[in-house]
Design goal:
GO molecular function: biotin--[biotin carboxyl-carrier protein] ligase activity
EC number: 6.3.4.15
Number of helices: 6
Shape: globular
CATH architecture of the largest domain: 2-Layer Sandwich
Organism: Nitrospira japonica
Strand content: 25-35%
Bound molecules: biotin
Structural class: alpha+beta
CATH superfamily of the largest domain: Bira Bifunctional Protein, Domain 2
Pfam family, one: BPL_C
InterPro entries: aa-tRNA-synth_II/BPL/LPL, Biotin_CoA_COase_ligase, BPL_C, BPL_LPL_catalytic
Length: 250
């Protein structure tokens, strides 16, 4: 990953920019990085706060190279394998252990350090591609967040007391993500699923999972399914009743 890197001082969204490049035929591994995003996108239609100069905002174009029978399994593990790669990169570059909240939030002490947004598209000649967007809070402090995000967010600097070279972090990030995606493509999800599960703090907890269309499902998270979904059991409606079990896709 990163044979071609497009650097921007300011874009609306690196995901939007990478998506346009991919539609125009940009190759697997092309990366878009920005110092600042004016319309950073988060999951579930949220926005991603993206001030200049202190964080990492990047998007990677990925195409699958595998038999079509394995494609949907690969696709459903893509966000989780990426999250694992990002966690391993942060640990390697900043000596900071991060937890994962299913499907792909990076947390430290329950506060959000980073997030990942995967989007699918296809070129005019119908070749499918994925854009993986990564946002990481790196060198900011509490004051750099708007008031409403402060309590729930953190940065590498806040957690370690050190400033991190963002170029070094980016190169480590691309290396670890590439490693995890290669593993996923070549060997399937075996090691990835184990390492992901070890870091995942969602399991065993009471969760409220937001679904598309503003709906939500609440219950206890029990397992990561073989296809990367989260298995959630809701409390039975009546005493002695069976729990309702639901698999939620990322
Ligand atoms: C989340 O909601 O947790 C996912 C956030 C993903 C943010 C990153 S920043 C780089 C890339 N460009 C975007 O517009 N979003 C992603």
């Amino acid at each position: 990953l990163g044979a071609r890197i497009e650097l921007h001082r300011q874009v609306d969204s690196t995901n939007r920019e990478a998506f346009a490049l991919a539609q125009a035929g940009a190759e697997h591994g092309t990366v878009v990085v920005a110092e600042e995003q004016t319309l950073g996108r988060g999951r579930l239609g949220r926005t991603w706060y993206s001030p200049p100069g202190i964080n990492l905002y990047c998007s990677v174009i990925v195409t699958a190279s595998m038999p079509t029978t394995q494609f949907s399994q690969w696709l459903s593990w893509l966000p989780l394998a990426t999250a694992l790669g990002v966690a391993e990169a942060v640990e390697g570059a900043a000596s900071l252990k991060t937890d994962l909240k299913w499907p792909n939030d990076l947390l430290v002490r329950e506060r959000k350090l980073g997030g990942i947004l995967c989007e699918s598209g296809s070129t005019a000649s119908s070749t499918p591609f994925q854009v993986i967007g990564i946002g990481l809070n790196v060198n900011g402090t509490d004051e750099d967040f708007p008031q409403d995000l402060r309590a729930a967010s953190t940065t590498i600097r806040q957690e370690t007391g050190r400033l991190i070279d963002r170029n070094h972090l980016l190169s480590r990030l691309l290396l670890e993500i590439e490693h995890c995606l290669n593993e996923l493509t070549i060997e399937g999800n075996g090691r990835i699923a184990m390492a992901y599960t070890r870091r995942c703090i969602t399991l065993g907890r009471h969760v409220r999972v937001s679904l598309a269309g503003g709906k939500a499902f609440t219950g206890i998270a029990q397992a990561i399914e073989p296809d990367g979904s989260l298995q959630v059991a809701s409390l039975p409606r009546q005493r002695g009743g069976r729990p309702e079990v639901c698999s939620i896709r990322a």
